[in-house]
Amino acid sequence: MFLSLLLFQKTTIKGRPMTIKNIINFLLSMTLVFSPFTFATDVECTDAYDLQSCMDEVSDSGGGTITLSGKSYYLTDSLVLKDDVNIVGQGFSSVITWDSSISETIDAPLLFAESVNNISLENLKLRCNIDQSASSEDFRNDHMGLFLDGEGSPELGEDADNNNINLETIEVAYCSHGIHIKGAEGITANNLKLHDNGNTETDLFHNIYFRRVADVTMTQDDSTASNVGFYDSPRGHGIRMSHMKDIYYENLHVFSNADHGIHMSDGIENARFSGLVVEGNCDNSSGSCSDIKCYGTETECDIDYDANKE
């Protein structure tokens, strides 16, 4: 109706006759001026020192994917992740690590976000620089591979700050926590390779630590595969979990960690484990230790250790 009325008016748009073509061009120009929408883009990030600029460019466009080359990318500060921006490498040859000028002193996570949504990290390696020797006193507690910080406790019905996170074929090594995720909902992870993380204060830092997280699925394609798993934490656990619900783990291999293979506490609700291989842990534990242990009452540890494959 509006367009019909315009067509019959004897007027002009910016001095031009009111033709159908000019009306369409005018409406398109107004859409470009006033539209709140942006369009996703993909970026091939080839500069080894400019990952944050690539992240910001894709974020400013409305989201998309950063593609890494099969080489090392050097950071001098944490790479801050943004909503709707994915990072996809070429495999473990795509390495994100610290620049040599600060690698011995930096105490910060390689990848960091506080309240991030709808991201995927795929086919890459995160390499920190903590001394993992038995005599090490390299206690850089914030020297993590991936740290997603956030409020919210989904097991208490609170909304989580971090949502819809996908991790696919990622290696993380020589960090305090390899991966630490707090206040999150909707985590999927497949074929993680986390090792040699946790050489800080005993029982505080681990290969991976979930806290206040719900709706988690972690799988391996093959529980006997040698190129994935959670292993060789020199002082910590393979997997640490607290305040969690709706968990499904399948075919995970958790082995040769100094403390527990899988340590759970502070409320674990609706956990299903299928085909896990958890063996040879407790190499250098302090106090009691088990391959798999949940600390709490039967109600606080709602776990099916032999669930059907989903």
Question: Which key terms come to mind for this protein?
Answer:
2 domains, 310 residues, Pectate Lyase C-like, 22 strands, 20-stranded parallel β-sheet, 41% strand, disordered N terminus, mainly beta, 10% helix, two-stranded antiparallel sheet
Low-confidence stretches: 1-18, 24-38
- CATH architecture of the largest domain, please? 3 Solenoid
Summarize the helix and strand pattern as letters. HEEHEHEEEEEEEEEEEEEEEEEEE
Spatial separation of the terminal alpha carbons: 54 Å
Structural class category: mainly beta
How many domains is the backbone divided into? 2
Short description:
This protein starts with a helix and ends in a 6-residue tail after the last strand. The strands form 2 sheets. The chain has a 20-stranded parallel β-sheet that branches. Strands 1-2 form a two-stranded antiparallel ribbon.
Describe the structure.
- It is globular, with a radius of gyration of 24 Å.
- The longest helix has 15 residues, at about 20-35.
- The protein folds into 2 domains: about 1-35, no CATH class; about 40-305, Pectate Lyase C-like (3 Solenoid).
- It has about 300 residues and is mainly beta.
- It has a 20-stranded parallel beta sheet that branches. The protein has a two-stranded antiparallel ribbon with strand order 1-2.
- A hairpin with a 2-residue loop joins strand 1 (about 10-15) and strand 2.
- The protein has helices at about 1-10, 20-35, 50-60, and strands at about 10-15, 15, 40-45, 65-70, 70-75, 80, 85-90, 95-100, 110-115, 115-125, 145-150, 160-175, 180-190, 195, 210-220, 230, 240-250, 255, 260-275, 275-280, 290-295, 300-305.
- The protein has 3 helices and 22 strands.
- The model is unreliable at about 1-20 and about 25-40 (pLDDT under 50).
